[in-house]
Amino acid sequence: MEPTDRTRIRRGRHRAVADRSDLLALLDDALVAHLGVVVGDHPVVLPTAFAVDADGPDEGGTLYVHGSVAARWLHESAGATVCVTVTELDGLVAGRSTFHHSMNYRSAVVIGRARVVEEPAERQHALDLIVDHMIPGRAATLRPSTRKELAATAVLAVPLTEASMKARAGGPVDEPADVAAGVWGGHVPVRRVIDAPVPANDNPAGLDVPPDVRSRAS
Amino acid sequence: MEPTDRTRIRRGRHRAVADRSDLLALLDDALVAHLGVVVGDHPVVLPTAFAVDADGPDEGGTLYVHGSVAARWLHESAGATVCVTVTELDGLVAGRSTFHHSMNYRSAVVIGRARVVEEPAERQHALDLIVDHMIPGRAATLRPSTRKELAATAVLAVPLTEASMKARAGGPVDEPADVAAGVWGGHVPVRRVIDAPVPANDNPAGLDVPPDVRSRAS
């Protein structure tokens, strides 16, 4: 993770996180990425499932983004520079003034040239990683994808070389006069909860929830 | 919310949501937006606080995005077309095959020409909306912003005319053969929880958590 001119944190340098393990931990924790591509003359930002292969074929490791072969953004982004941003909201910061209201969060911005994954074996590998990112251990319990399924699925690979991370945690930082005025300040933690699995209606009677799915609950 | 060529859902039409009240409900529920701008020759996607004024000065209502006057993306996006995407993850869908794994979510994509809010009164109004979006009722309990604070804060306004929404809910839709094979299918609900407020260390002793902050907890 070497910040370049494009990913170097210009604002809020004190919120920049330099440690690659923090970046990978965030990418492991978060479930949705926002992919930005330029379509025609304007940006389009779309939510996508994703996964990381820290030892992937691209320099710095590979971030895989999932899509449909029929999606226009996918074709527009082949070979182009894209931006993948992953954000987790951790809290709301109630400062003593409008100005000092803030959010606690972790956010990673990855900028890189997108490569469409053409090779079926790499595509299957990427899809397995994406499934296991959602539900760790699930991929090994599923049949292999058919050629037709692989052909209908598109995967974009983005190198993890150009990545920056920002994070904020804790309470507000206020003007001394506002603190002295006795306005309450603090923060409200926000977290993601994963509830108990809901079986599909068409499961055979008596089929147990598999351990990988059961372990996903918070 | 009139879909144009740019926001019309091309993929997954069955997941398009046409009702403006659903769009506004998502924008009310979600706390973080991802703003996409073109900086130089590539897209940049950044997480931001935001708020909606359905009766705002822009056609279709106004989506306000918060930033810093010193941020480069802000200057790059003045007058340019930007994309603001708001996504809430509602669940993980465990299909019986890799191909039919999916996510439950609600996502809105707003594309429009960004206007930098110059007028101090509109800027204060937008900041009040952003604070109240985080903690409803909080803005009225705070002192007015100073001229210096308003000058240091930048707000971008994006019209809500070009907006599209997609949503997915429920369990997997699988191949009959995979269902018959007895693989467990279902989904795992995901939701956001807001925990009890954490007072700042420098609050005066005995200062109660105000009702607006207390009500924010789930």
Can you put this structure into words, describing what you see?
Two copies of one chain form a homodimer. Helix content of chain A is 21%, strand content 36%. The first copy, chain A, contains six helices and twelve strands. The first copy, chain A, has helices at residues 20-29, 72-77, 120-134, 147-152, 176-180, 211-214, and strands spanning 16-17, 33-39, 42-48, 50-53, 62-68, 81-94, 102-113, 115-116, 153-159, 163-168, 186-194, 198-199. In chain A, strands 1, 2, 3, 6, 7, 10 and 11 form a seven-stranded antiparallel β-sheet that branches. In chain A, strands 4-5-9-8 form a four-stranded antiparallel β-sheet. In chain A, a hairpin with a 2-residue loop joins β2 (33-39) and β3. Chain A is globular. At the A-B interface, β2, β3, β6, β7 and α3 of A face β2, β3, β6, β7 and α3 of B. β11 of chain A pairs antiparallel with β12 (198-199) of chain B.
Topology:
Two copies of one chain form a homodimer.
Chain A lengths: L15 E2 L2 H10 L3 E7 L2 E7 L1 E4 L8 E7 L3 H6 L3 E14 L7 E12 L1 E2 L3 H15 L12 H6 E7 L3 E6 L7 H5 L5 E9 L3 E2 L11 H4 L4
Antiparallel strand pairs in A: 1-10, 2-3, 2-6, 4-5, 5-9, 6-7, 6-11, 7-10, 8-9
Pfam family, one (chains A, B): Pyridox_ox_2
InterPro entries (chains A, B): Pyridox_Oxase-rel, Split_barrel_FMN-bd
Protein name (chains A, B): Pyridoxamine 5'-phosphate oxidase family protein
Structure summary:
The structure is a homodimer. Chain A is an alpha+beta fold and about 220 residues long. The first copy, chain A, has six helices and twelve strands.
